[in-house]
Amino acid sequence: MQVLGRLFNCINALLGLNTLKSLLRFWGFMLVLLPCITLMLIFTYYELQNTKRESAENLEQMITMQQDTIDKWFHERAAVIRDMANWPVLKAETEDIESINARIRQFLQSQDEFSAVIYVNKAGVTVAAPFATAGIDISDRPYYQKAAQGQEYISDVLTARGAADGQLVVVFSAPVFDEYRQFKGLMLGAVKLATIDKIMKQFQFGRTGETYLINQQGLMITESRFIGQLVKNGVAKDNARLSFPINSETLQVVSQGKTGTAAYTNYRGQEVIGAYRQLINRDWIIIGEVEKGEILESFYRQISIMLICFLVLMLATLPLTMVLEKRLATPIRRLIAGADAMRAGDYSYRVEQSLIDVSVSEIKTLCNVFNYMAENIRTKTETLNDANQALTVARDAALAASVAKSQFLANMSHEIRTPLNAILGMGELLGETPLTPEQEKYVRVSRSAGENLLNLINDILDLSKIELGHPTLNKSEFDLFIAVEETCQIILLQAQQKGIALHWHIKPETPSCLVGDPVRLQQVLINLLANAVKFTEAGEVTLEVSQRSQPEADFVELLFVVRDTGIGIPQDKLGPIFERFTQVDASDTRKYGGTGLGLAIAKRLVELMEGRIWVESMLGVGSTFYFTVIVGRGNETTEAAHLSCTGFIACQQPMPEAIRQEPLNILLVEDSADNQLLIEAYLKKTPYKLDIADNGQIAVEKFMARQYDLVFMDMQMPVLDGYQATRTIRNWEQEQGRTRTPIIALTAYALQEDGIKTRDSGCDAHLTKPIKKRVLLDAIAHFARRNLM
Ligand code: ADP
Known about the structure:
Layout: H1 2-15, H2 20-85, H3 88-91, H4 97-110, E1 114-121, E2 126-128, H5 142-148, E3 153-159, E4 168-177, E5 183-192, H6 194-202, E6 210-214, H7 227-232, H8 248-254, E7 260-265, E8 271-278, E9 285-291, H9 292-327, H10 329-343, H11 353-358, H12 361-432, H13 437-468, E10 476-479, H14 480-498, E11 501-506, E12 513-516, H15 518-534, E13 540-549, E14 555-564, H16 586-592, H17 598-608, E15 613-618, E16 622-633, E17 645-649, E18 665-669, H18 673-682, E19 689-693, H19 696-705, E20 710-713, H20 722-736, E21 743-747, H21 752-761, E22 765-768, H22 773-788
Parallel strand pairs: 11-13, 18-19, 18-20, 20-21, 21-22
Antiparallel strand pairs: 1-2, 1-5, 3-4, 4-5, 6-9, 7-8, 8-9, 10-12, 11-17, 12-16, 13-14, 14-16, 15-16
Helix pairs in contact: 2-9, 10-12, 12-13, 12-18, 14-15, 15-17, 19-20
Adenosine-5'-diphosphate binds next to helix 15 and helix 17.
């Protein structure tokens, strides 16, 4: 079965039959053709054999009859001569030749078969020979010798002696005995061979069939049926007897005296089928033959009829395959076209009902299912499209609303930050003046409220950004140790105020030079550390950093653990606290403040850094927050990076070095009078000289007129904003060939992309309002030192 299948596939591949149509056409023809050819071959073979056999049998039958007739002919002629030998006139002691002659003459005149009858005496001399020569000695002839032995004899074909036309005869002889049964002579009778021809002609048949006699030498004795034609063609003379040899191979067979049939080339050079048989009275052979062409005529006729029938049958397969094709291939082609149309998004395509009706049942079902499916898809697609359209409209509206909301939040944040800068800054400055304990308390409360408000604004701003779109990471190479230390420093003040110790520890094998977003990482850390400090009344907060695994050669998975000895979180609240606006309970909120956004933001950021965040906690004992991030491995490796790094921060930070430096010329570009006042107050006790420009335009003019060591640039200002002013200053510096003066953006725009925007315009750093005095002084010290180096 498998072999057949393979053969089928091979044939199809060889002939390139790869469509149902071509397969049906070809195999349809083949199904008719193959049995037809096989049948025809079998029929042809058997019919051919049959025809040949039948013809040979007919021939055999015929020559058998003919042989009987000829043998009878011999027998009768021999009997005639025998009768003559018994004539009383011959028995007398002294023959009366005259009487014998008269008797012979009388006999000869009464018939026309015998050409001569001769009486030969005992000595072998012809004595009575009317119409022939008497006195001839024939004692040397076989018929005399046979007669002398008392036997009858029939000669071969002989040419009649004395006959002018060379007439062929067969001589019959019979001995003549006297009344004492003594040999007395013999009677000879020459029978014209032509008389046998008459018998032979009785048995001629067909157009090409003939019978003839040959002698042992294979020479034809009887006259050919086609003698006229042979003479005409110059192949034979008038008397063509004994001049045509038959095929020597055949002669060999027939001369063995056997009876049989054979196919051979005859004396006329024609392919014939013949039957042969030897006569009883003589060693002559009678042959009956018919040309093969004539024998096979009826066979060819039958074959032709059969071929025509097959041809008609094959032509009939054409409509048959067309019908099959219509029932099988056409619907399948339509189904394929339908599938294509669907792929192209056209669901209106259907297989025609008229085609389905004439298909076979399986294909009918397939077409119906296809049509049903197409209709279903069309309706569902339409419904979906409608829904999609509605959704798109809704989404666009929601997006527009979200953008508007985010924009609003950003603007609000900016608007709140600007006065908050003054409030917090002034509060800070007020705290540095001599105050009564009560005043100090009021200032502390006001500053704490301001800080809380700032945190709230930061959280809202972060969340609005995260919700607005997908927050992106700003990757750069950073030092993990510095990032961790900076973060701890930020939390330090709160910890100090609550009398809580803050420990941090980076495990020895942790790499320090990494690639990632340090700002986002710090944001998560600050959130967790700030919470830890906020929810801890006594004890300590620790931060532990370690390398967890190395997923790929170029990446590191870091594990951060923030542990506190605070109030703890109930088990049932451990999961939800990472949801937005979730707090453990309302009373806590009142006591500790907060919005419930910090952990939600931290979770989103950690996930953005391909990590996860989770918490373990025990009520009244403390909480441990864990989070992982995957960061890249940086290029620089310093020795310090491989060492264990531990810190304990609990001391007051010294004032920045810059304060002890040379006085610097600083230009503050700020449109808000409150903020101008604040920065002036911040720098009051420093050696720095502050010059103020109310907008970007004035700033550019001042910058071109005087040498400044540092510029603080507000970004949103009337006349000329900070971005344009910075660009103009940078272009001017370039034109003049001057070294770059540090320009620090000092703005209430706190989004990350705002930082990118300010840097793009030419600023060296981005500080957000409200700004603390220490941050401002640090920045001055940092940039001034960098500038001096
Ligand atoms: P917020 O602190 O602004 O309320 P968070 O999202 O940072 O918002 O925290 C959500 C809540 O999870 C907090 O209100 C608090 O109830 C609980 N929580 C967070 N950190 C701790 C902690 N270290 N100890 C106890 N409770 C905590």
